[in-house]
Amino acid sequence: MDDVSNGEKALPSGEMKSVNDEPRRELSTIHRLRRANLFPWIPARYALAIISFLGLFNVYALRVNLSVAIVQMDNSTAQQYRHGARTFKWSDEEEGWILAAFFYGYALTQIPGGWLATRFGGKWVFGVGVVMTSVFTLFTPLAALSSVELLIVVRVLEGFFEGVTFPAMLAMWGQWAPPKERTRLATISFSGPYVGNVLSFPLSALLCEYGFDGGWPSVFYVFGSVGVVWFIFWVLLAHSTPADHPRISSDERNYIERSLDSENTRTKDRAKTPWFQILTSPPVWGLMIVYFCTNWGFYTLLTCIPIFLKQTLGCNNNIPIVLNGIYSSIPYVFLSLSTLLSGPLADYIRSHWLSTGVTRKLMDIVGE
C-alpha cells in the first residue's frame, strides 16, 4: 500500500508527488494572463500610469459626451441631419437640469471614494466606478427616449459612480509612487482626462453626424462599450499595491516600499484622521476656495461650450456639429500640453531652485 500519511504518494517512475498538488490543474487562460508579464521592459508603476491614463481618459469621455450629443438631441438647436434619430423639445431649464445632474451625484461620493479605496483597495473602487458609469452611459439613449426625469436620474447615477474615481486613483498612487517620481507618475496618469476631452469632443461630434442608430445614440453606445472593455484589462493588469502585483520584480517592489513612508505602506498603523485640525486649517480652506473657483470655471466650460457655440453665438445654421466638436476641444489641447510639461518642470524646479511647497504654490498661481 502506498504510504500517504506524509501527504505523498509514489508515481510509476518511483518519484514521490504531494497529494496536495493533485487538485492543481493547468492555470486558466485568464489566470495565466494575470501572471504573464506582457510588457517586461515597462516598470510596473509606469504600466499602472499608462492603464490609469486610459481609465481617466474614459472617465472624462463619459462625462462630456452628453455635452456634444445634446446639441443634436434638442430639436430647438439641431440642424437638419441625415439620420432619423428622435429629438426632444426641451426647455432651457430642462437642459440645465440634464447637464447639471451628473455633478449632483459626483459631489456625493468624493470623500467616500477615498475611504472605500483605503478600505477595499483602489483597484476595485476605481474600476467599479468606471465600469458602472459606462453601463449607465449605455442606458442613456433608452432613458432619454423614456422621459427627461429618467435621463436626469441616469446622469445622477453616472456622476455617483464616477465620483469615486479620482479619490481612488490618488489612494493608489499613495501606495505606488516613490516620492521622487510622484509628480511624474501622477502627471502621466492625470493627463488622461484632458486628452480625453481633446478627443471625445470631436469624436462625439463625428458620431452624431455619421454614427449608427440615428447619430446621437451611437455616442453613448461607443463610449460606454469602450469603458467596459477597458475594465476587463484593468481587472487583469492593475493591482492596488506593489505587494499584490504578481508580475512586479522584487527590485522594483523593494524600491517602492523602501521609498515610501511606513504610514503610507502600513495603513493599520495610521493615526486617526485629525478632522478638527483639517477643518480649522487656513491652508486647507485656502486650497478649497482656490479649487472651488477653478472647478467652477473648468466644469462650466466643459459642460456648456458646445451648446454655447450653437446658441449664444447665434451660429445655429453656420457651424456644423463636427466643427463645433473641434472648436470645443481646442482649450483642452493646450491644457493637455501644459499638464504633460508641468510635472517634469515642477520636479526640476524643486530639485534645483525652490522648495517643494514654494514650487507647488508657484505652479498653482501660474495655473490659476
From TrEMBL:
Residues spanning the signal sequence: none
Biological process terms in GO annotation: monoatomic anion transport
Residue segments, region Disordered: 1-23
Bilayer-crossing regions: 42-62, 97-117, 124-144, 150-173, 194-212, 218-237, 284-309, 321-341
UniProt entry keywords in alphabetical sequence: Membrane, Transmembrane, Transmembrane helix
Membrane topology: Multi-pass membrane protein
Domain Major facilitator superfamily (MFS) profile residues, every copy: 44-368
Pfam families per UniProt: MFS_1
Molecular function terms from GO: transmembrane transporter activity
GO CC terms, sorted: membrane
Subcellular location: Membrane
Keyword Membrane applies: yes
Name recorded for this polypeptide: Sialin
Native organism: Geodia barretti
